[in-house]
Amino acid sequence: MSYQHDRDLHLTYSPERGYWHFMLYIEPPAYTGGAINAGQQLDAFASRYAAEWRDRLTPCTPDALHVTLVAPDEAPQLWHPCVYDDPESPSAVARDGCVCWRAFRDPITWLPVAVHHYRTVTGNHEHWEHHTYAPLALPDGEQLTALIIDREADMVWARTDRGALHILPEKQTAGYSTGYRGSGPAELARMIEKIVASDGYDVTPGTPNRRPAETVLQWASSHAAARTQELSLRQLVLLCRTGVVA
């Protein structure tokens, strides 16, 4: 298909209508997911950036997009109470363990978030795993002021001139990574070039499938990039000009 984000598929949500302009990929009967928005799976307790994003999420009633974030046989668990709320829940294990899913929404992007709670009986092991989709753009009119490489949570974030933290926009099959020669660092390098060329206003994924400038690619592939760091727009400009960020 010929996809143009600004013209065709701008995710929209309202309490009255729900979601529209969100494209799904379906393989009956086993799989449903986002066709364009990249799925994200993260430990939202792993870093301060992930915690900042997690803390703004709001609980909500599960809807169709939440169902796309979980396995088909686990979808009913989105409606089961957590063991902390009801020890007799169908998702409770021996009144103490839990395998429930909880539904949240990002109040800025309205993207769905499904959180898997796994707790063993007696609580020897317990974790909450967050599943969501990356956006396809930053909110209209907002400028990226910092690109954040978050090694603890294995994420790349964008902060805007309004102070909001977002998952860096990403499309399916085109993820970002650092520290080695491969497609992930190349995609990040191309995104950095796009950000700099637009002065931080074009942060849409799907960069042209071309080789980025060697200086930017070398940095993204290096150990210098493979650590948690917050890079200002000025540093990204410097990177594109010189191959270094400071």
| DSSP, total strands | 15
Helix/strand structural class: alpha+beta
Major sheet description: 5 strands, antiparallel
**Shape assignment:** elongated
List the secondary-structure elements in sequence, H or E: EEEEEHEHEEEEEEEEHHEH
Q: Tell me the radius of gyration.
A: 19 Å
Number of domains: 2
Strand order of the largest sheet: 5-11-10-9-6
Strand content: 25-35%
Mean pLDDT: 90
The proportion of residues forming helix, as a percent range, comes to 10-25%
Helical segment count: 5
Q: Which stretches of 5+ consecutive residues score pLDDT under 50?
A: none
The N- to C-terminal Cα distance equals: 41 Å
Keywords:
246 residues; alpha+beta; 2 domains; 5 helices; 26% strand
Report on this model:
A hairpin with a 4-residue loop joins strand 13 and strand 14 (165-167). The strands form five sheets. Strands 5-11-10-9-6 form a five-stranded antiparallel beta sheet. A four-stranded antiparallel beta sheet has the order 14-13-12-15. Strands 1-2 form a two-stranded antiparallel ribbon. The chain has five helices and 15 strands. It is an alpha+beta fold.
